[in-house]
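Re: that backbone. Tokens:
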């Protein structure tokens, strides 16, 4: 990773030079480069230009040049549905009780769908996608077709379940934030979370930022969030209150 094209070229050249000393070569077919905000990148290895892409799968997560996570969320949802499709025999089995099937859903499907969710920025559209995914999984377990015109509330009541997938994602993201903020010394993740981008922003409505979720879910300002993470027990209470909202009677 580099902040300028020249810096990236220097890193790649050093990697290639030191690798060749050990008999290693960079595989140009598997090596890609990506620049943020649509910038052009002319990084080369032995006078061969590295292919520039706008999306790249790294450690199982989809990175994009515009830092938008909506496509990544759609990919994770699709993979979750894929796991659910492989478990159709379990959903049809009458010897397995419904509560057990729901536990299997949370154990086998949700981890696949939530992989890397700590890095997501959750806006309203993404939140709606996550909620719809959870309901669709429960409908498959109950074997309820969309043509039956059953409401989501009816599905949840029949299954004896409550919505909890989005809250689980919030809990993981807030716990990760507290863990990073408590780190001492230089920390790249902390710099990314607290950093700002120089220059004027583009016109129009600003995009929701990763840190915006922390403020919305906790109801705290950035300053209070940073102070709150210093106390591990206190931060756990903040996370619990944010992910387990109380409903008022009436």
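Recovered sequence:
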């Amino acid at each position: 990773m580099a902040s300028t094209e020249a810096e990236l070229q220097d890193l790649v050249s050093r990697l290639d030079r030191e690798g060749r000393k050990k008999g290693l070569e960079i595989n140009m077919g598997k090596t890609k480069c990506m620049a943020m905000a649509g910038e052009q990148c002319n990084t080369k290895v032995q006078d061969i230009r590295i292919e520039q892409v706008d999306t790249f799968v790294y450690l199982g997560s989809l990175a994009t040049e515009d830092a938008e996570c909506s496509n990544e969320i759609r990919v994770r949802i699709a993979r979750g549905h894929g796991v659910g499709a492989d478990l159709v025999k379990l959903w049809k089995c009458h010897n397995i009780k419904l509560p057990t099937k729901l536990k299997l859903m949370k154990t086998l499907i949700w981890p696949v769908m939530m992989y890397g969710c700590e890095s997501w920025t959750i806006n309203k559209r993404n939140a709606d996608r996550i909620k719809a995914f959870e309901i669709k999984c429960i409908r498959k377990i109950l074997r309820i077709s969309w043509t039956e015109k059953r409401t989501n509330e009816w599905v949840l009541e029949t299954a004896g379940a409550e919505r909890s997938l989005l809250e689980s994602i919030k809990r993981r993201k807030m716990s990760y934030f507290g863990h990073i903020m408590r780190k001492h010394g230089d920390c790249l993740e902390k710099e990314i979370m607290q950093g700002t981008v120089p220059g004027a922003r583009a016109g129009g409505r600003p995009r929701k930022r990763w840190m915006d979720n922390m403020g919305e879910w906790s109801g705290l300002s950035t300053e209070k969030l940073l102070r709150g993470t210093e106390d591990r027990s206190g931060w756990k209470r903040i996370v619990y209150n944010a992910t387990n909202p109380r409903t008022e009677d009436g």
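The chain is about 55% helix and 5% strand. Residues 70-163 form one domain.
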